[in-house]
Predict the 3D structure of the following.
Amino acid sequence: MKHPPYHLRVNKAIDRFLLIEILDRLKRNGVDLSNYTYYGFGGPFLEDCRLIHDRCPEISIVSIEKDRETFKRQKFHCFSKQLELLDGSFKSFLAQFSSRDGEIFWLDYTNLSLGHFNDFKDVLGKVSENSIIKITVRAEPAPKELTSENRERKWRDFRNRYREEKWEVFQKKYREEKWRDFKEKYHEILPSKAQPTDIEERWSFINLLQKMLQMASQQALPALGESIFQLLDSCYYNDQTQMLSVTGIVCNKKEVSEVQKWFKDLPFINLTWAEPRRIDVPILSIKERLHLEQHTPTLDRTGHTVSDALGYKIDNGEKHIEKLKQYEEYYKYYPYFVRVLI
């Protein structure tokens, strides 16, 4: 029942707006969204549902919530008769789900579990063509080494096997067992070339998860079938912890080229399962944002233009330019958060 304040997190907000861009592009290409239904995990404040309702009011909205107290908060924050709040688990909902004319799913998880990949596959197998599916999972790798704080706990866990080993040997055993457990858990969707180091280094782990999602999509929509999951967007960002977010469209294989044309000129588009983009915008005040609006968009998107406009650094070293480069990239999706005293 403990929820991160998603409604106040700029990277998460940008990820939401990128979904809206995809829906806008569907509308521009003649897809009638009035027949679509959005399914998501709205959380206590229903932020994603509010954004969908505001930007695409023709879409019906369903939020599924299994936690009883969170569901009560959702009822308190319910903002439209067009929003349906369902009390129950997503697996129970999915077991009874049947496709309508079009669906938009956001499987927005705060952790990583094999069940999330299975949910993803189940959804892909049930939705109609031209449905948009988005999945977000935790992308934090397991610790590469044991720390002194959890050494004693691990000694207790492994005492029957490794208690006589030296610390260096024990570290090796720990890493081997960590990789063995990961392979055993995710073997069905684990790429054949995956290596133990893939679950220890952040960038390698993010790429591994994307490949696992790609494999899951191919298992759900096999080569002999008529439909395919066409990737549209892939990004990672920090939201209290590192997250990977993947968005795509289920379409007929004969129409893949046409569907790709719909989206190919979007600046963030990823049609080939290339490496995911990073979203890491700086935290700026409203005064700074209003000042920088005079200097955006920029032609080069190197961060230097808005850096010169500010006249001071907002972070240390190279991080300063990297953060402002990210701002130049995503400035139009950057939300305004204000404090109101009542």
